[in-house]
Structures are given as structure tokens and as C-alpha cells.
Fold this protein.
Amino acid sequence: MDLAEPTSAQPGLDIVVTSLASDAHTWNLVYLQLVLEELGHRVVNLGACAPDDLIVTECARLGPDLVVVSSVNGHGFHEAKRVIARLRARPELAATPVVVGGKLGIDGPGGRRRATALTEAGFDGVFEDAAGSIAEFRSFLDRLPVGVRS
Amino acid sequence: MSDGSFGGFVAAAAARGELVVQPRMGIGDPAAMRAGLLAVRRAGVPAVGTLTLDSYTRVGDHAAVRAALAAGDDLNGYPIVAYPPSTTRAVLAGLHGPDFPVQVRHGSAKPQDIVVALLAAGLHATEGGPLSYCLPYSRVPVAEAVRAWAESCLLLAGLRERGGRPHLESFGGCMMGQLCPPGLLVAISVLEGLFFRQHGLGSVSLSYAQQTHPEQDAEAVHALRALAAEHLSDVDWHVVLYTYMGVFPRTRHGATALLERAAELAVRTGAARLIVKTVAEAHRIPTVDENVAALRIASRAAARAEPGGPVADTGVLAEARAIVEAVLDLSPDVGVALVRAVERGYLDVPYCLHPDNAGRTRAVVDPTGRLRWSRIGALPLAGLVETTGHADTSAAELLRSLSHVERTFDDAALDPTGIG
């Protein structure tokens, strides 16, 4: 659970886990960190209520293999669209895999409509809270190249 | 008798032997918010109303609120700062009064603008605290939250000079919602109550959130009342119980049973007010009708319950007392003591990712369903607590602990002989 900086000498991915600016929930972040660490990845957890600027500067500084955005307060859809635009605007983050998941609207799972809009906005994966979303997320992870960073 | 204040309303209900129930309702649209308050007022149970604010307002991003309103996007609560006071006054007109107080619930580490807005709208009750709305919910340094909450208390307390009776509730009994052992929850609630009193509040409430085990919870509420009686005898205070704030049962029967157990716990332990949860909790933000149904279920369960009953002492009071005394010894100023206590790890909330939180404590649900420390870090509990001696919690163990209550109540709901 420490927040040590990733070292890229070992196999496994360097992953940034983050909430969004208005979202104060933490258990989703704590759980994701443990799951990812047990799968052999290294995690920097930015915690709750991460402002856009912090997410962008930390991702640019750390150069992770993957960014995992998790939000459950119902504002996630709108905030995630805003943040992915900021991330993709940075040349060094233009191709970084970035995924989003959780409860992204206030009205329950938004199905294909929200997922499509978020994918078009620049996310590589959308995992809305529903049975099987962690399994889908793990299979997404399996498809990412591991330990190829210079 | 009620004196027209929030604390007075709760005290009057308690004197009649009635539990006050309260929803956590917040709606972005003023007309819908008003309709929600009206439905609570007309629910036919002793209730107070709630304006729960949206989470852009919580973090002070009022520009995001205005953009959302302009675009017609949904907000997850009522944006009291972005609306002019006249809008909120119109929401409350004819509803808010001595027989139906309304409390603002928000979650902000720096709530000065929220306090200004609620006072401008004619309201006088809110909640939170310099630790309870800083550590779990923000990235604001604790020292900054302490300053912000001192200012907010002074703003609220200023009402007393104009004949008002402001009320402030500590959210300290709910750190992280779950997996924080009761001794620390009780201690933080008492310490925030002391902070409020130091900054001029004469009417406060102390919170405790239902956790994983009814006997342990009863012991905790008794400990909270005992420490409040010792430390806050010169102010008006009551205990508010929150229905379970962690991962909630997904079945209707499981969710209802958990709410009923919370109402029974409140009556058994002498808590005067209960924040309810609804059958929709696990799935989405509840509707007004679901909130009203929850208020009625809780109120009926409370009316059937009996006060009193023996509670075994497993050391919650001793734990809470040790933490409170160690923190107060750090400075005669409660705010300074809180900052130093977090720095030294005397207050260290398990699993909390806040940059100032030491992060050296852990807790688990043990095989009997009680919440226990597995690591105490630098908490001043040496000799009082036996830790489980486990190494780090695995993801599967964490998930098992986090979902213990949900699983217990949902499994029982699916079993016709069970507690659901």
C-alpha cells in the first residue's frame, strides 16, 4: 500500500490509479491498487478528488504504461471526458492506454451509449459497474504488452 | 420543549421517546429539491429535512456547477453556493421552520462559502469537521482544513449574537464509511465536538456509523455518550447514528433489514437521530419516494424497539478514551492538537490515502464479525489492543471485509429462515 514511485526494471506494468476532481470515494481505488499489485504490477495511487492538473502532471512525470480512472459519484462521465481531452493533448500521453470504470452517471449503468461516447473521447476501455466488469478489465490487462519500456 | 433550533427539535423528540429520522437527499433542480423536502415533511414521522450538496460544490468548483446547469447536465446534489440566496429561500419557504428543521450536508474540507450560503438562505444547521471532511474526502492539508473549519465555526457561531441557535454535527463517526474500528470513530467524533465547542458552537451532535457487529456497535455508542458526557457537559449535544455507510445489501429485504437493525441500535443505545439509507443504495442515488419509504421503515422499527439492555465491555471506551486524552495532551488548542496528532500518527485512519494520513494502520472483519485492528501503527493504544499479527491485507481479504455486511444481509434475505 505504499505510494512509492514505480521502478521499471521488473516485469509488470507501471500503472497510475486515480479518482476524478469531484469524486471523494476511496475504496474503489484501494481495491484496484491491491488487485493490480497482486497481478504483479506497480501502482501509484493519486487518491480521492484528484484535480485535472494533478492527473495530467503526474501522468506526464511518471510516464505510466496504463492509467486507470475510477469514479463512482455519478459525475464520472462528464469529468472523465474533460480529463481525457487534457491527457490526450499532451504529446507524451497521446498514445498511453487510459481506461475508465465505476459508476459513471447518477442513473445506473449507461450501457453502450456512454461507453461509445467515452471511447470516442479517447479512452481505450470503459468498464461500467456491472457483473463481470472486473473480469473484463483483467482480460484487457492481459492484452497489454508487459515490461517493454525503455 | 423545542426552542425552534435543530438541537431543540431533536431534544424535544427525545423527551417524547421518539427517534428523529433523516434522509441524505440532495437534488440539483430547485423545484425537485423543494418537492423532496415537502415529501419528507409530510412523511408522517418525526423527521428533519436535508439539503445534500453536489460534489462540485463540495470541492469548491462552482464554475463546473454553472457549466453543468447551463448544459442541462444532472448534478448529484443541490448546489447551494451557485444559486442565489433567493432561490434557496424559495425552496425552503413554508417548509423549513421550528417543526421541520433542515440541515445542509456537504462533505467539504473548506466549507466557508457553503456556510455563508446556508446562513444567507436562513438555515442554521450543518455537519462535517476538520478531520472527518478532510482525511477521507479531500487532498487539503489537515492544517488548512483546521483553519477553514475554525472560520466556518465562527461564521456559524455568529448567529448566536443575533439570537439564533446554530447546530453543527461531527461526521467523525464515519471515517471511510467502513473498516475503521469503533474506538477511533468515537475518539474523532468527540475531538471534533470539542473543536466545535472551542470555536463557539453551543449545540453539537456526535456521530457513529453502524459497522459490522450489533454488540460492538452498541458498546461504541455507549462509549461515545460516556465521553460526550465527560467532555461536553456545558453544551447541548446528542448522538446521531448513521445507517451502515459501506457496501450496501443489493436485495430489497437485505437493505431493509440492515436499516431496521440501525433503527433498533439507535433506540437501544439512546441515540436521538438516525440518518437512513434506502433499498436503492447499492444501485444508484435514491428517489424521493425511496427516501420517504426508508424514513417510515426506520421510524416503525424504532417504535417497536426497546431502549436499554446490557452491553459487554470489550474495550471500546478505553480505546477511545486513550486516543482522546493522548491527542488533547498535544496542545491546549484542539485544532493544533489535531494537526500534531495526525503528524505523529496518533490519529491514523486505516486505508485512508490522504497525503497527511500516516497510513500505517489496518483493520479487518474477524471471523465473529467484529471489526478489529490488524495493525495499529503509532496509535496510542499500546497495551490496549491485540492485533491479529497479519501481514498485509490481500485484495480478496479486503473485498471479503468490505462486503461482509452486504453478504450477511443479502444471504439472509435469500434464505426464508434468515434475518431478512
